[in-house]
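Hi Prof. W.,

I finally got the YigZ family protein prediction working! I wasn't sure whether to trim anything, so I left the full sequence exactly as given:
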Amino acid sequence: MQEIVVPGEAEIEIRNSRFIGYLCKVTSRADAQAVLADIRARHPGARHVCWVLLAGGESGMNDDGEPAGTAARPIYLVLQHHALANVLAVVVRYFGGVRLGAGGLVRAYTQATVAALAQARLEAVRAQSTLRLRCPFALEDGLRRYCARAGGDVLAADYGEAVVLSVRVAADEVPRYRQDLPDAFAGAVEFVDSP
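And this is what came out:
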């Protein structure tokens, strides 16, 4: 899987119609709606604003009035072919007065998405794991700082007899955590039902 690191934008013209493609990283439908609202505001005269969102369980697509399967589906196929995740792809169309037919629309939306993708910068997504780390209350701040320096994201903290932090880390970093944490905290940090 890959994610967008630097957004892409490109414009193509086909038989007097302008197609402007945008690709950006988003992590939720709410993020995507904000980006869509901004794009719509920048293109008030556009005939169609077609989009595809790939963000886990919040994915979706919209042909925005184009014939079914001629806009969002070709955009989706480009994203799928490049194994993109957490991405919003938008293609804005200004109608040029010449009908393109279903095949022409499919090619146009595909080309606009590919052109925007060529301007974007991608990065491979690292597999993630969640570690649950138990420590005494007095070590919580130190453990949080350690995780931040090591590239971990604290997702949650549970307080009981001790603190249990749920920390998301790159899967390939788990062995390093398992090796370094006992020494860094003199054995006071324990792994709780973690990989």
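Residues 33 and 40 are 10 Å apart (CA to CA). Does that look reasonable to you?

Thanks,
D.
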